[in-house]
Amino acid sequence: MHHDTPKNAPERCAYESDDVNELASNLTDWNQTYDQVGAGRFYGRIDELRLGTMQVYREHSSRTLHQQCMVRPNAIWFGIPANREKCRINGQKLERTDILCRPGSQPFELVTQDQFDMLGIVVGKHELLGHAQAQGVAIRSLDMDNSPRLKLPLKTLQHLRYLMTRIVDAGPVDSHIHRDLLIMALLEVMDVEKPNTSVAPSHNHRQNVVNKIRAYVESAREMPATMAELCEIGCVSRRTLQYSFESILGISPSQFLRVSRLNRVKRMLSGPNTVSVSDAAAFNGFYHLSQFASDYKHLFGELPSHTKRDTQPDTGANSTGFCLCLLPGTSPNPPAASCH
Fold first, then answer.
1. Is 111 exposed, middle or buried (0-12, 13-18, 19+ CB in 10 A)?
2. What single DSSP character describes residue 315?
3. Does residue 322 have a pLDDT over 80?
4. Cα–Cα 20 to 30 A to 159, which of 10, 240, 254, 274?
């Protein structure tokens, strides 16, 4: 079928899934891993718009997540959470007019709570720098490692949020015009922002403790099974271990260990390999299969056997998600081109 396409029309994509791993992999040009922490069936949606090399999106997630994220190289990400009380970045809570900001190729961590929405924009660093130089705007925060939060005047924050929301929700738009509108809004942000460097005196130490244990858990074939082992890995007392996880991730170390193991099982069952449920459970230290199945269903809202069944190659009848990549200039209604 032939479509008459406006020359400067952007590409839109809407993706829905009931699997956190699928959702994490479907934000274009991001390197991400999500662990589900909140109990219950998951639902997520991404509405994404590409304006040339610029990416604008809104992401919804129904359950509490721990997100390991990294933006594409030579880019800069700005994020506006709908509810600041429900979000932490690198263990830091947000204040009333903070937005999030991270340069490309630099890993960062988000903790998001139930029913969470995030507006995001990714722009090429050199593009933004070029426009800033032409406009005489000094950009101070693009490479700041320790200040992922930028404090804005309330009116600047409201304007940026309003503009991004309208563009994501709009019908056909001119890519050049709307990219220029967003660039000008970002230049205003960079002209008035102030890095929010306020953290508790113990923050860096607690962050290091969590990072050390997380790195061990992600790389070790066998996960630690007791609090004493976690204390030994982190070189801290039991009390410090507890405070570190609660302040950085919002959960206890024992909760972290349990959900990490369960999420690792789910990734194994959702992958292209042929591992059995019992083998995946045993690999991650679950030997009482009835208790494991109960814990798994409590967290993910389904039995592990259902996860395994739903990810087997078939005719698509059991697919857990869909993606609609809309042809430039079309509306969010069919006809649409399916993308995978």
1. buried
2. S
3. no
4. 10
Residue type, 336: A
- Per the domain annotation, does 3 fall within a domain? no
pLDDT tens digits along 169-190: 987 888 899 999 999 999 999 9
The pLDDT of residue 127 is above 60: yes
Residues 6+ apart with CB under 8 A from 1: 335
Q: Are residues 195 and 231 located together in one domain of the fold?
A: no
Full residue range of the structural domain in which residue 231 is found: 203-270+272-310
Residue 303 belongs to a domain with what CATH number? 1.10.10.60
The residue among 250, 273, 270 whose CA lies nearest residue 262 is 270
Looking at the structure, tell me whether residues 215 and 266 fall in a common domain.
yes
Nearest to residue 10, comparing CAs of 324, 325, 322, 323? 325
135 and 264 belong to one structural domain: no
The CATH number linked to 45 is: 2.60.120.10
- Residue 280 is which amino acid? A
* Any domain includes 149: yes
* DSSP string of 6-19, one letter each residue: -TT--EEEEEEES-
What is the rounded end-to-end Cα distance, in angstroms, of the chain?
20
For residue 317, is it within any domain? no
Distance CA 281, CA 287 (A): 7
Bigger pLDDT: 2 vs 142 = 142
Neighbour-count burial for 130-142, b at 16+ CB within 10 Å, e otherwise: ebbeeeebebebe
Give how many domains the chain has, as a whole number.
2
Among candidate residues 112, 5, 12, 98, the one with its CA nearest the CA of residue 68: 112
